[in-house]
Amino acid sequence: MNLNATILGQALSFILFVWFCMKYIWPPIIFAIETRQKNIEESLISLKKAEEELIIIQKKMNQIIQDSKEKASFIINEANKKKSIILEDAKSIALEESKKIFLRNQLEIDLKVMQVRKNLHKEIVDLSILIAEKIIKDNIQKDQYKYSIKKLIVSLSKDKKLI
Fold it and tell me: Which residue ranges does UniProt annotate as crossing the membrane?
């Protein structure tokens, strides 16, 4: 065997093998690699877009949360103001009502005091008349000072009628 022919045969076989691989095997492998690269690039682009959208959505969400907190704070402040106003109104109404009740009770007390004084004065006058009658009956004879006694009784009776 000739060494040159063997090397030439092997070289020719190798060239045919490389040509066959480049013609039929290599293109599908390259196509699969390129497709995979495109998919990876598209995935990376989609990932970047998704991250940007996520950042935008988080900013919007934070803004919405902040707005909600401000609205809640405003509503709470308004409710506290209304509560204060209602409490002040209730206090003033209660104070006015207590003043009315106090004045009404004071008038009732004054009326009762006046009635008691009037009754007491009447009883004092009645007792005075009774005492005077007893003293007069005991100390004065019937005929003596009759005119003075009648005058005293009439004047006391008039005082009693006035009361």
Answer: 13-33
